Amino acid sequence: MLRKSLLFLITGMIAISCDLSAQSRTRFTPQKTKPERSEYPMFDISVYTGIPINEFAKNTDALGFGLKGAFFIPMSPKTPLYFGIGFGGLIFGSNGQYINENLVISSGSTVIGTIPVNLEARTNNWMLNGLLSIRYKAPLEYVQPYAEIIGGGSYLYTRTVLYDRSDKGIFTSNENKEINSRTLESSFTYNFGAGAGFMIRLAEQVYLNIGGAYLRGGRAKYFDKDQTSKWNIQFTGSGNFDPNNLNSNDVTLDYAGEPKKSTTDMIQINLGVTFKIQ
Q1: CA 183, CA 124: separation in Å to the nearest integer?
Q2: Cα 59 from chain centroid?
Q3: Fewer CB within 10 A of the end CB, N or C, for the chain?
Q4: CB-CB contact of 196 with 181 (8 Å)
Q5: What 3-state class would DSSP assign to 31?
Q6: How far is it, in rounded angstroms, from Cα 48 to Cα 45?
Q7: CA–CA distance, 180 with 229 (Å, rounded to integer)
């Protein structure tokens, strides 16, 4: 009987000791917690300009103006290193020509009426950019400098669009008044380089973004705005002209001249707004 009592007592003491030990570990041993997130995805939207340099600048004095956007994902919750992907478009010169004619409807020598032909032919030299980047941003509170490595590609093309400028829109039913269009030259090339800038805090999640980049570009073919300004666009509609179905053969474009060829190095400068996505 005494042995059984001692056995129960020892067993109870061991159980109580284990329970106290577990409580002590829970109370005094710090628990591992997840690191607090300090870096969040960001979205940039900017107006920017492209300034040709080196061989590109010798072939054209046009400056590119356009709009671009980029999305940045932090590579670690606590590290201000971002992977970015962005797209943008620049216009390196735009030329327009208006065509105002009156088609005479007659029967013999009798004039029955006239049909006004009011058209605009607009030629734009475009450069579209698609870029990948790695950006490091200083984790400061109000002004955050950054530096980045950039690489991607550019698509250059020259396009002429014919618009209906008549009062009643008799030549097309399209909302943008576009009748016809034609791409006259296109070229794709690579580019790479580096950039830097700084973000100035405007609100809790909004920053003013000012930056620039130097990009080396591969060789491409393109028309310059001085070339496109000399192109001659004429209306050659005949007596079979149908105002409700303008035929592209009624408008001719004389774009004599060879496209220029060079590398496409440039400096880009941007001004925009950055939003943190929390």
Answers
A1: 10
A2: 25
A3: N
A4: no
A5: coil
A6: 10
A7: 19
35-276 CATH: 2.40.160.20
pTM of the model: 0.75
Closest CA to 187 of 225, 153, 213, 230: 153
Phi, psi of 83 (to 5 degrees): -105, 130
Domain boundaries, the chain: 35-276
Q: What is the mean pLDDT of residues 241-253?
A: 53
Per-residue model confidence as pLDDT tens digits over 101-137: 776 777 677 777 777 778 888 899 999 999 999 999 9
Joined together, the tokens standing for residue 278 give 């929390």
- Average pLDDT, integer, range 88-108: 83
Phi, psi of 244 (to 5 degrees): -90, 0
CA 129 vs. chain centroid, Å, equals 7
Please classify residue 173 by burial: count the beta carbons closer than 10 Å to its beta carbon, then call 0-12 exposed, 13-18 middle and 19+ buried. exposed
- Name the 3-class secondary structure at 262: strand
CA angle, residues 5, 8, 10, in degrees to nearest 5: 105
Give the separation between CA 240 and CA 74, rounded to whole angstroms.
63
DSSP alpha helix (H) spans, 45-113: 55-59
Tell me what pLDDT residue 257 has.
73
CB 266 within 8 A of CB 52: yes
> pLDDT band at 235, cuts 50/70/90?
low
Structure tokens at 152: 């991607």
